[in-house]
Amino acid sequence: MAADSFINWSLLALAAPGWGGVLLQGFLHSIEIAVGGYALGLLLGVGGAFGKLYGGPVLRDLLECYTTIVRAVPELVLILLLYYAGTDFLNQFLGAMGIATVDISGLAAGIFVIGVVQGAYSTEVLRGAIKAVPAGQIEAARAYGMSPGKVLRRITLPAMLPYAIPGLANLWLIATKDTALLAVVGFSELTLVTRQAAGTTKAYLLFFCAAGALYLVLTLVSNLFIGIIERHARRGFAERR
Amino acid sequence: MTDETTHALALVPEDLPTPENFLRPHRIVMLLLLAGLVVAIAVFMRWDWLPRYLPWLGSGTLVSLAMLFSTAILGFLLAVPLGLVQVTGPWFLKVLARLFCTVIRGTPLLLQLWLLYYGLGSLFPQFPWIRHSFLWPYLREAWPYGVAALTLSFAAYEGEVMRGAFAGVPQGELEAARAYGMGRWTMFRRIWLPRAVHRALPTLNGETVLQLKSTPLVATITVVDVYAVISKVRQETYLTYEPLLLLALIYMCLTGILVVAFRYFENRIPTRGA
């Protein structure tokens, strides 16, 4: 059994008979969803963290429920629930408003789903980071008469960033890998197209290894940038041991 | 993954409410609203399928738990050497362990699972000696691939944690052990490993909760865990939300039990403190 009977590199060609182009397209979709979901998650996370720290008792408890449920239920189950519930709810809402129902694109649904999951995680990361900011700095800003919005923009967010970046960087890596779960709801991101390509050509190992290499490259390149950002954010800090 | 990230992803004992400050006026109102929601869900949604599928749900939950505990234990046994060689091993073992952790942590678990199941699963039958070995009846089933993928993933994440834990044990304690004339193995068994595990315990528990959240992935390779049972219910009853809500509830209960159990064990380990 010769080794080259397993590896047929022409299957990875970019043009039509090869599946390389399809894989790259799927990879692009994965990155789009990861970026969108991560951004949405950050927005939810900033809101959630401030709500949890400075909100009223009811808001706090509601946010606690949100983060607890997301952290206690598998992402796969959440993705299914949010995918069906989100699209259903939106269509019913549009129907109630008298607008024709829309076919929600997989991309938007995927971003929404990943964003909601990431939102709970970044709420926790950001809450920890904001708590690490010395209270005196925020008090000083208030004493200068800054409005809450200005305190947030000028003091709290910049000051908490060095504490938040390691956690947020991990969340980004998790977001890129969580996109693979959308394969289960049939969104054609990298993992699903890889399975389709592998199933069609029967070259399972080749395609799964190729997809793994793509994910790995994404992680390693991300790590490179994370390192730069972290160094930039931590300048002026004592060297970490 | 840093400890804080594990904390952000997995429920930890500190998140549990304490009985003293739990019942406040607004909470009672919220609990009443929640009870109303639960009643509405129970009355207005369809649950008549539940008794029929209960035995399957039970066995599916057991399969999920078996997956969790077997892979967590196997993964931990693999993580100890992975962490250890990264701290004190020869350079080629260090490089190998780092490479393993980077590759596993850099790719999605679903992809690893499918790579093992579809990739290796399609490769194995081509070798006659594998087909004639005693392992073949197992290799034809799906669960060994699920166990393998989950174990490797747990070992890679846990290996990083153990590396930090081994490196964090104070040098003086190891020197003291050496000064007492302990051999390398005795020192490892009596001092280094217990101290490292103690340090890593909170993260270990968090990772185990995360592992529970990864187990439903094995349903995609035809292992019949609780998630697969629910998928079957959805296909047969054409219901969308009810089975998924039940599934979420089951996982929340499992996570809750796990977290409470970990709190109990963590409290039993004596720590120095006021």
From TrEMBL, chain A:
Gene3D superfamilies: MetI-like
One GO molecular-function entry: transmembrane transporter activity
Record-annotated membrane-spanning stretches: 6-28, 35-54, 66-86, 93-117, 155-173, 204-226
Annotated ranges, domain ABC transmembrane type-1: 27-226
Annotated keywords: Cell inner membrane, Cell membrane, Membrane, Transmembrane, Transmembrane helix, Transport
Membrane topology, as annotated: Multi-pass membrane protein
One GO CC term on file: ATP-binding cassette (ABC) transporter complex
Principal place of residence: membrane
Subcellular location: Cell inner membrane; Cell membrane
Keyword Transmembrane listed: yes
Family: Belongs to the binding-protein-dependent transport system permease family. HisMQ subfamily.
NCBIfam families documented for this protein: HEQRo_perm_3TM
Name of the protein described by the UniProt record: ABC transporter permease
Classification of source organism: Bacteria, Pseudomonadati, Pseudomonadota, Alphaproteobacteria, Hyphomicrobiales
Automatic annotation (TrEMBL), chain B:
Cellular localisation: Cell inner membrane; Cell membrane
GO cellular component, one term: ATP-binding cassette (ABC) transporter complex
Topology term for the membrane: Multi-pass membrane protein
Keyword Cell division tagged: no
UniProt-listed NCBIfam families: HEQRo_perm_3TM (TIGR01726)
Family statement: Belongs to the binding-protein-dependent transport system permease family. HisMQ subfamily.
Protein name as catalogued: ABC transporter permease
Species annotation: Sinorhizobium glycinis
